[in-house]
């Protein structure tokens, strides 16, 4: 019997790390890592609990199909997408869904049904499930499609409903089908990890009444336009952030606005070639994902340090350190990354996700700050052996790394990575044996304000 087919997602450009991790699992056959969406397609008979330990994967899905001939015109595309469900073999993906559902129920210590009842519930003909289709459509290299993501999701949903008889539910659902469309290429999968609590709460301000409904006894969701003026209707939807493979990290307790995914942090740490006994530093750590991922992966074999100058980020990192289970030594500090309080040549590895994007402060401040941080990294790295992995999106950073610091930093790799729709540079550099430049201390000039003298006549 052929092993089931999975799709594991990751940041586009970092598939090599996920591929290497999958190839280390016995009986795993990697099919492709070059599809339009970032990730790896593979077959394996490994148990779900073993695949759930993958560090380089954002999430894992049951593979339904990959197609490269999706029409651009709306009518032709809708007809094509509606007919896809009949071409899919649903038996193996639904069996994977059942196995992963049992794993989650066992892990959450919830009351689960017997395996025979579960299998009967997975039979579409005996007990229809609720489902939703989520579509993401992007045009990269061709003319824009004439249909929207909602059109694509509705067309696929119609096909699933007609073939399997499942009921569509956008807010609370048993199965989620995801479709990623890039130009004319389509990847369609079934989610295997879901957030746990599926309840609806209706809060009424007048009589302060509260009603909770489980998915087994779920009424039709009211429309906001039909609700009384004094009524606030709130739906607790399944959390997208909790329905990820990396959300199971024990240290992931507190987040900041632009927290890095642990799977991406793991890939950056792999690029750093960390060895036992190394001191690993992230001078702009945010909530501490990179240093905490390092100790969660390698335990007490290394020393990890994270720091930031934002008080909220430092507080979040401290909470994560306390909740990380104490797998290894990790310190969280508050400092100015442009003036590190460390001796020269004392750090083995620097792994840093520098701020970029609209949600990470002022652009002009970042353009001024990041090159100064690079100069400090040059100073603190061990000469000849120190390695730094720097993720940034800036022309100034590229100039600083590739030109200004060329005598002190040897470029090992330059990788382009897609992060939330942005193309980001990842620089892997080794410290040369050249002594660091001497930074002269220049005191600030006294600011003499010119006083205006008024002469009375």
From TrEMBL:
Coiled coil: none annotated. It comes from Marchantia polymorpha (Common liverwort). Transmembrane segments: none annotated. It comes from the Eukaryota. This is Ribosomal RNA large subunit methyltransferase K/L-like methyltransferase domain-containing protein. One of its GO terms (biological process) is tRNA methylation. Residues 249-400 form the Ribosomal RNA large subunit methyltransferase K/L-like methyltransferase domain. One of its GO terms (molecular function) is tRNA (guanine) methyltransferase activity. One of its GO terms (cellular component) is tRNA methyltransferase complex. The lineage of its organism: Eukaryota, Viridiplantae, Streptophyta, Embryophyta, Marchantiophyta. Pfam families: UPF0020.
């Amino acid at each position: 019997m052929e092993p089931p087919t999975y799709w594991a997602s990751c940041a586009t450009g970092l598939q090599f790390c996920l591929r290497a991790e999958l190839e280390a699992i016995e009986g795993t056959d990697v099919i492709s890592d070059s599809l339009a969406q970032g990730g790896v397609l593979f077959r394996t008979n490994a148990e779900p609990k073993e695949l759930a330990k993958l560090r380089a994967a954002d999430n894992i899905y049951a593979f339904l199909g990959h197609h490269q001939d999706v029409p651009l015109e709306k009518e032709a595309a809708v007809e094509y997408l509606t007919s896809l469900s009949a071409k899919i073999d649903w038996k193996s993906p639904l069996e994977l869904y059942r196995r992963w559902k049992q794993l989650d129920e066992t892990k959450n210590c919830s009351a689960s049904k017997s395996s025979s009842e579960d299998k009967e519930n997975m039979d579409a003909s005996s007990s229809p499930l609720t489902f939703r289709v989520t579509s993401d459509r992007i045009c990269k290299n061709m003319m824009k499609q004439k249909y929207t993501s909602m059109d694509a999701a509705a067309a696929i949903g119609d096909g699933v409903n007609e073939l399997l008889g499942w009921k569509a539910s956008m807010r609370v659902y048993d199965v989620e089908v995801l479709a990623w469309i890039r130009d004319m290429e389509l990847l369609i999968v079934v989610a295997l990890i879901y957030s746990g609590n599926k309840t609806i709460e209706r809060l009424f301000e007048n009589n302060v009444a509260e009603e909770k409904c489980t998915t087994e006894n779920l009424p039709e969701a009211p429309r906001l336009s039909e609700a009384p003026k004094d009524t606030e209707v709130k739906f607790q939807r399944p959390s997208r952030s909790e329905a990820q493979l990396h959300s199971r990290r024990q240290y992931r307790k507190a987040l900041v606005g632009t927290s890095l995914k642990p799977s991406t942090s793991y890939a950056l740490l792999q690029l750093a070639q960390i060895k036992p006994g190394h001191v690993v530093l992230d001078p702009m750590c945010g909530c501490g994902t990179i240093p905490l991922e390092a100790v969660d992966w390698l335990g007490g074999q290394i020393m990890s340090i994270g720091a930031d100058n934002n008080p909220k980020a430092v507080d979040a990192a401290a909470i994560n350190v306390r909740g990380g289970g104490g797998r290894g030594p990790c310190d969280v500090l508050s400092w100015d990354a442009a003036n590190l309080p460390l001796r020269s040549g004392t750090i083995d590895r620097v792994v840093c996700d520098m701020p970029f994007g609209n949600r990470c402060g002022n652009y002009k401040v970042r353009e001024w700050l990041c090159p100064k941080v690079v100069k400090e990294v040059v100073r603190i790295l061990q000469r000849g052996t120190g390695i730094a992995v720097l993720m940034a999106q800036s022309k100034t950073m590229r100039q600083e790394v590739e030109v200004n610091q060329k005598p002190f930093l040897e470029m090992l790799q330059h990788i382009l990575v897609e992060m939330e729709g942005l193309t980001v540079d990842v620089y892997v550099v080794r410290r040369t044996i050249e002594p660091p430049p001497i930074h002269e201390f220049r005191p600030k000039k006294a600011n003499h304000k010119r006083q205006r003298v008024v002469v009375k006549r």
